[in-house]
Amino acid sequence: PEGMVVPNPCQVTDLEAQYHSLQADGFQVHRLPTVDTCTVEDVTGRVAVGLKNMLRAGNRYGFRLGLRNPEAYDAAQQAEQAWKLTIREAATGLAVDATRGSMGLTSEVSQPWGVYEKELEGVA
């Protein structure tokens, strides 16, 4: 979103250990399987995180991406597609999963963001 800056090269790290413990709903948040690369496209600010191993279906993953927040909160930061997570297949670049719209940044403490659970159609 406007005003948000991700340093290049970017840095992806694990969450603290307590985030990866078994949750009351029976799910566990997993670490990303061996981050290989983290790059930022200069024009769009889009971040690409390359992994050495596959994400597994049915698992939840949590990670931290270092960035600098804008100086002040602006409702436009929540615009459709302002802050979106898309998981792409490395060889083809096709989307295999994504958040529905913007992930809902707030001026308050944010809750974890969920990834859309339905099949994506016609997304490249």
Summed up:
With 124 residues, the chain is mainly beta. It has strands at 12-13, 29-30, 35-40, 47-51, 60-61, 64-65, 86-88, 95-98. A two-stranded antiparallel sheet has the order 1-6. Strands 2-5 form a two-stranded parallel ribbon.
Write up this protein.
About 10% of the residues have low confidence. By secondary structure, the chain is mainly β. It has no helices and eight strands. Strands 1-6 form a two-stranded antiparallel sheet. Strands 2-5 form a two-stranded parallel ribbon. The chain has a two-stranded antiparallel ribbon with strand order 3-4. The two termini are 21 Å apart.
Low-pLDDT parts are 106-117
Specify the oligomeric state: single chain
Q: What is the strand content? A: 15-25%
Average pLDDT value? 76
Alpha carbon gyration radius:
15 Å
Overall SS class: mainly beta
Number of distinct helices:
0
Shape: globular
Instruction: Give the N-to-C terminal Cα separation.
Output: 21 Å
Main sheet record: 2 strands, antiparallel
Structure summary, number of beta strands? 8
Strand arrangement within the widest β-sheet reads 1-6
The helical percent reads under 10%
Helices and strands, in order, run as: EEEEEEEE
